[in-house]
Amino acid sequence: MRRRRLAPLLAVSVTATLAPVLATSTADAAPADASAAVSPAAAKGGGLDRYVQQKPRWKRCSADSPAEFECDTIKVPLDYRAPDGKRIDMAISRIKSTAPGKRHGVLFSNPGGPGGPGLYMPMMMQERLPKPAQQKYDLIGFDPRGVGKSSPVSCGLTSDDENWLRPYKEKTFDKDVSWARDVAKKCKKKVGDKLPYITTRNTARDMDLLRAVLGEKKISYLGYSYGTYLGAVYTQLFPGRSDRFVLDSAVDPAQAWRGMMQWWAKGAEPAFDRWAGWAAERSKKYDLGDTPKKVERTFWDLVAQAEEKPIEVDGKPVTGDDIRSGIRAPLFTPKEATEGIVELKKAAAGKPAATKKLAPFARTGGAGATGAAGAGAGSEAAKVPSDNTMASFWSVVCGDNSAAWSRDPESYRRDAVEDKGRYPLYGDFASSIKPCAFWGDSAEPATKVNNNVGSLVVQNEWDPQTPLPSGQAVHADLKGSKMVTVLGGEGHGVFPNGDACTDGTVTDYLTNGKLPAKDVTCKATAESNEKARQNQRKDRKPDTFPGAPLPDRF
User: At 29, is the secondary structure helix, strand, or coil?
Assistant: First the structure.
């Protein structure tokens, strides 16, 4: 009987079914289907009813945005178990379908993160979706709770606090423990009683509340990176509300979140081997060695040299640890990694080098240092706390699943030492101590994804943030899914890549609602990989659109 009480958020009988969905004891159970839309007239009484009755007052998002791009803010409960308590903002946006007669419903989207703002996603979807797919949907964007304009959180972090991917060194480990403890303490003090509720599960509930406010029976969805986890959690909580779901570059729910960080180290090793072979085959051009072993030796010699005496790059010292950390993502695009090492070799010899190609090796003060710039367009970004990206990142990464994080600092020392031996490029970065070691317990258990909702998982073979096995794991958890694997596909984020096989499969599904009869394997070309890289580079520009995701994020 208890499981039957956990009906989906916003079922037809609003008063009877809204509050019980948020109990925590059966968090992993897929709720029963109850997919009829809620009309405001049906919502009576207290609890969540008043939220459903909200009517967005859509208006142009900004003076310099397209007229059809509209925004508003609605209220959602801080804690869905206490809907009459504190409320927070949910910033929402839309671009309406230009062909109402062809309209299928709404397409929600998320660019990645955690900590990635999504308010401007409809503009990106308008640019990237073919016209037939655009006409099917009102394109819906939102900043996840705690992010951007959705009651943004701040921990008061400094740039040094945001430098979170720290290599293990015996002499600095105690300092790193203190750093992790201080970040957790700052977040607890400044975010206060909101902190336990900035989670993926609650963002999924916000999505479903928005669905009801919009008067929709179901939502379709396109999520990148972290957005795939958010989408998968939504399908688990609200299977009857899930329509056409595309999960691009997918997070393995069972690895959220420490395990996903450790995947970065595991995935870097085969990418390193592939890169060494690629560079060796082109030794006449790049002169890094004519065998993979010689290429590897060139790399590790540079690491050793920089560890003994940092290499100067654009006036900044680059250490061996900087080289190990900086090479990880470029390795998945061998040409990029090779050109970077060639220039680093020049710099190490005191010769002029192309600074632009050395950018991955230059320390920038932490992956979240540019986070606020991506929170919106123009002056709107100034309203978001400068540390919002990292503050919301830790809120989710630590709050989603506290059970994944040991409370014993010494366990992180052991793991870092062991994983540096296993995965010498990045093992210690991924496994060393993080603020989650000192976080409070999660408000509810992590979501176990295991359902039959139809969806499409899209994955590059060579993805530095969500490696191929991660996408395969999601595909196995979502038993109604089909998977598109892009063999030879490089980089994080696939759709659209200009390849007829990949883009055609995704577009057909979004347009017609039919999944392929079986899993699809596409083959990347130089052109499709370059198109995907162009999208990724554009997404990271703060003056265009904050796409999925920032470097060294999901």
Answer: coil
Q: What is the largest CA-CA distance in the chain?
A: 76
Q: For residues 114 and 554, is the Cβ–Cβ distance under 8 A? A: yes
Strand ranges inside 41-111, DSSP E: 59-60, 70-77, 87-95, 105-110
SS (H, E, C) 9-23: CCCCCHHHHCHHHHC
- Euclidean distance between CA atoms 87 and 145, whole angstroms: 11
Position 350 scores a pLDDT of: 94
SS3 of residue 466 by DSSP = coil
pLDDT for residue 393: 97
Give per-residue pLDDT as tens, 42-78.
333 458 899 999 999 999 999 999 999 999 999 999 9
Quote the CA–CA distance of 148 and 144 in Å, as a whole number.
8
Amino acid at the residue 536: Q
pTM recorded for the entire structure: 0.89
Q: By the 8 A CB rule, do 412 and 167 touch?
A: no
DSSP H or E stretch at residue 480: strand 478-490
234 near 222, Cβ under 8 Å?
no
Rama region for 192: left / alpha / beta (φ>0; ψ in -120 to 50; rest): left
CB-based contact 215:103 (threshold 8 Å):
no
Angle between helices 292-308 and 334-348 (to 10 degrees): 50
In the block, tokens 């480990």 appear at: 173
DSSP states of 393-451: HHHHHHHS-GGGS-S-HHHHHHHHHHHHHHSTTTHHHHHS--GGGGPPPPSSPPP---E
pLDDT for the residue 222: 98
Contact predicate 549/225, CB 8 Å: yes
Could you tell me if 153 and 203 are in contact, meaning their C-beta atoms sit under 8 angstroms apart? no
Continuous segment of H or E residues that includes residue 453: strand 451-462
Q: Quickly tell me which residue has 């004891």 as its tokens.
A: 25
Place of tokens 């609200």: 238
Alpha-carbon gap, residue 273 to 166, rounded angstroms: 24
Residues of the chain with pLDDT below 70 are 1-46, 363-382, 537-553
Q: At which residue do the structure tokens 């070691």 appear?
A: 437
Among the listed residues 495, 501, 467, 497, the one whose alpha carbon sits nearest the alpha carbon of residue 332: 467
CA dist., res. 286 & res. 244, Å (int): 46
Taking each helix axis from N to C end, the angle separating 388-399 and 173-191, rounded to the nearest 10 degrees, works out to 100
